[in-house]
């Protein structure tokens, strides 16, 4: 018989608490308990990147991360401010960096993590950061353009204060 644990964590800037079975992955907590379905289940083995979220400000594969290991989580739903998209989300839209969109939440979260630590990444740094994020539609050149454009937009925002 599985035991149930009471958990409390911050999800997208808000306190979340609930009961989850021991051993629940962060992906299952987000999708099944917090009803945030933007984070996608892909391979279930951490190989495709579709489930990438920020846990304690680091990009992690939610399908491999135990829910109990995270204190603060940001998902794709937590990036926008009101009606204003996060610069990475806007750049992906502007560059048409997706077709089916299944990989997009994970790609965006991976790019957000990269740009937080490396505001002006080289193409090699972008490729390295997004290595393991699979896009079945093959929009990699557009994804690269989007990440570069997002870095530029974030730099302009920072200069404006």
Automatic annotation (TrEMBL):
Its EC number is 1.17.2.1. It comes from the Bacteria. Residues 5-79 form the 2Fe-2S ferredoxin-type domain. It is an enzyme of class 1 (oxidoreductase). It holds the Pfam family Fer2. GO terms for molecular function: 2 iron, 2 sulfur cluster binding; metal ion binding; oxidoreductase activity. Keywords: 2Fe-2S, Iron, Iron-sulfur, Metal-binding, Oxidoreductase. PANTHER family: BLR6218 PROTEIN (PTHR44379:SF2), OXIDOREDUCTASE WITH IRON-SULFUR SUBUNIT (PTHR44379). This is Nicotinate dehydrogenase subunit A. The gene is nicA_1.
């Amino acid at each position: 018989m599985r035991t149930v644990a009471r958990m409390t964590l911050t999800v997208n800037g808000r306190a979340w608490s609930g009961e989850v079975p021991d051993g629940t992955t962060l992906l299952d907590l987000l999708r099944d308990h917090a009803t945030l379905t933007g984070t996608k289940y892909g391979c279930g083995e951490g190989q495709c990147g579709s489930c990438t979220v920020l846990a304690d400000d680091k990009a992690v594969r939610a399908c491999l991360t135990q829910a109990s290991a995270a204190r603060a989580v940001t998902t794709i739903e937590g990036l926008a401010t009101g009606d204003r998209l996060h610069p990475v989300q806007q750049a992906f839209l502007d560059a048409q960096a997706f077709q089916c969109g299944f990989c997009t939440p994970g790609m965006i979260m991976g790019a957000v993590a990269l740009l937080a630590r490396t505001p002006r990444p080289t193409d090699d740094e972008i490729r390295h950061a997004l290595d393991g994020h699979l896009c079945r539609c093959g929009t990699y050149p557009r994804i690269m353009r989007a990440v570069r454009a997002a870095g530029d937009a974030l730099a302009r925002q920072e200069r404006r204060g």
